[in-house]
Amino acid sequence: MDNLEKVENLFSNNGIFTYIVTNISDIYYLSGFTGTTGYVVFDSGDFIFVTDGRYETQAKNEVNSIFEIVIVDSYRDYFSDYLSQKKNVTVSMDTPLDFYIFVSEKSNVNVDKKSLLSSLRQIKSYEEVDMLKESYQIAAKAFTDLIEDASYDLPEVIWAAKLEYNMKILGADSTSFDTMVASGDRSGLPHGRASSKVIKKGEPVIIDYGCKKNYCSDITRVVLNSKNKLVLEIIDIVYSALKKATDAVRPGVKCCDVDSVAREYIDDKGYGKYFNHGLGHGVGIDVHEKPAFRQKDDTVLAPGMVLTVEPGIYIPDNFGIRLEDTVLVTETGCEILSGVLDKYVYKIYS
User: Fold this and answer.
1) Does position 1 have pLDDT exceeding 70, yes or no?
2) What ranges in 121-187 are assigned the alpha helix state H?
3) What fold, for 126-346?
């Protein structure tokens, strides 16, 4: 069953006959369109793709042949006419406010509070997994190329720029998010975007990065050339927490329980207060998707779900360590997509 059949069944089972999709990632998921402006309309079993003249050729080349493609001069005029024929219309919770108001002036609007498309996207198809794997292969090669080329006494932003350059020349469309390179005391920042700080030999460097090639990758590794006992101790604790959590991933387990495995281990080691974020999140077309390895997410894992596992310990004004894997839930456990990188801690000598 392809995505459109799944959507048609899902909408039918929920009594939805007209649904206007505005989220560009949902639009790509349904239609294959990679542009930045368009709408997908589900109309009683039919699928319509609406865009303007700028994307006419692109739409004809990319959009699933099941769709009726409508090229408009004015979105407002098109939807004014379309909505005049509809008594009830459903939109998603992330629909832009101005579009919601516009639709509500023309028809009765229902908001999809179940986030049906988001829920559907949690289970990846074989084709989606292949695209995820391609993104991780690009990201891994870009990182190993950086390790071979990078040197100390350079600003964090230079390492980040080299890594992003490597991903682009290897075929990535873009980065998944702003590349994080945080060294020394800045590694104690869970979201330490690359700065002008100069990276010094002997201090830990957290690199959290990813690329997008249709689908996203998300990887965190540490660079370290030091025998600092505390740093090595924290690395060992975080690595053990990571492995215990990935070992717990299998169908039927709740997301919150996987989070607890890592959190309780780190807490038992005396560093619980320094692990101050969720264990991980879904990855797909977007780098942050549902479900999530969080304390209050009781989603039950199922084959085809893809999530990050990224425990961390961050000691303020000192340093931090985070290590990350991305797991694909299988019938019996999980496959580690980020295993294309065979180490978690790398050393640069120069």
Assistant:
1) no
2) 126-149, 156-169
3) Creatine Amidinohydrolase (3.90.230)
